[in-house]
Every structure is written in structure tokens, then in C-alpha cells.
TrEMBL record:
Keywords: Signal
Species of origin: Dermabacter vaginalis
Record lineage: Bacteria, Bacillati, Actinomycetota, Actinomycetes, Micrococcales
Signal peptide location: 1-26
PROSITE patterns hit by this protein: PROKAR_LIPOPROTEIN
InterPro entries: DUF8175
Residues of the DUF8175 domain: 66-245
Protein name per its UniProtKB record: DUF8175 domain-containing protein
Amino acid sequence: MKQRKRLKVAASVSALGLVMALGACSGEKKPETPTVQPAPTGQGQGQTQPSDGEGNKDTTSAPSEDTASSGSDGINTGCSLPDGDQKIPNSAPPVDEWVDVNGTGVPTSKTYGPEKREGDLFGCYAHSPTGALFAMVYFGAASGKPEGFLDAWVTPEDLATIPENRRGSSGDSGVTLTLRGFRFSSATQDKVTADLAWHVTTDEGQNATMVSRIIMKWSGDHWTMDPEMGDTPVTRAPANLDGFTLWSAGNS
């Protein structure tokens, strides 16, 4: 039951969770810092390590236990983008084009992905922290709405735990999301966790900058949603987005 709840929250995804959190925080006078903090760098398997004197970080390798393949008509399978640079980006990654998905600007790149696109259904991002970051922004913007989204972005094992009557999209949530920035928490070769800051506007006129944590895991040849992300609540962003790297369609 707990696993089903995780998947329902995570797969209907960011828009609904963000607006619920916005409503809960609407009476506050000051923004709160996120309850989730970046994982410390240093020793330990799966933690990020400094790679040079310029603040860039290399990710350590942690073999994935999940090698199952998921996908909807191959949109997120048969991926062939090179892995590329394995450093965690400490500045806004270059973007070839920002495209609209559900009213949200989503970054696209020949280097980082998506490699495949069918309407608003995207798939196949590079096997790197930056590739995972591009996938996270798409995942949050899509909010489970494109046809075939769950089949493409949830492994068959995880999808099997979702009842058939809960596999539809979250519908029109009345929320507009605008990406503001990102903050990595941890990264291994096959699992990446980051906090995304979104400016959230609702049809009722509410607006605030909120933070959602997204976790991606590598499955076979592509990134998929990790159900653990459903355990982390959406929170208000810290003042001035302290600790975040600014990244949006307007500043890249």
C-alpha cells in the first residue's frame, strides 16, 4: 500500500503536489528553507567527490540493480546517446532549444536529450548527471499527462503496483510551472537526486516559488522515475534561491 501511494503521488507528479503545497503555505509571511538538504560531499560510496580545483565534481559508480526495460512504443528504449561528461554541473547547462510542454519551458539538447520525441512524450536522455537533470525537468513539466507517459517513465515492476484505475493523468490542475533553478543532492552512475525550484502560478491567482525533489534511476538504457521521490514533500524555496543554480528559459 505504501508503494502504491508513492507511485500515485510521484507519477501524477509535480503540478498537483506543488499546488497543494502552495495552498498549505499561502498564509506564511516568510519562505521556508527546504526540509531536504544536499547530501554532503566526501567519502562514502555513491557520494559526489571533487574532481579538480574549480569546484566540479565527479560521480562515483554504483551498479544498478534494476536492468528492466520500460517504454511506450519505444519512446524511452533503444537509447543511444553517448554517456558524456559525468561531472555534476555547477553552472546552467547549455540548451539547444526550450520547448513548451504543458505550458512549461523544457530544455532540449542534442548532447543531453531527449533523443526521441512524439508530441509531448519525450524519452532517451544521456546517462550522466546532466542528462538526468534534463530528464527531471521534462518529468516535472509533463506531470503524467502525455499518453503513454507512465509506460515510458516507470519500470514494469513499479508500474505493476499501480492499480489500473489510477494510471491516468492528473488532468488539468490549473497550475503553470516555470523552472527557476536546480540543486543536486547526490549522484551515482545509476541514481541521481536533485531539487528543482519552480515558480508556481494557479488559476486562483496564488503564486510562489516552490521546491520539489525528483529522483531518477537508470534502467537498462534510459532514466526512469524512482518511486522514493513520493516520500519527500514539496516545500517553499529559500530566499533568493540560496544554494540553487539559476536555470530557466530566460537566463540560459
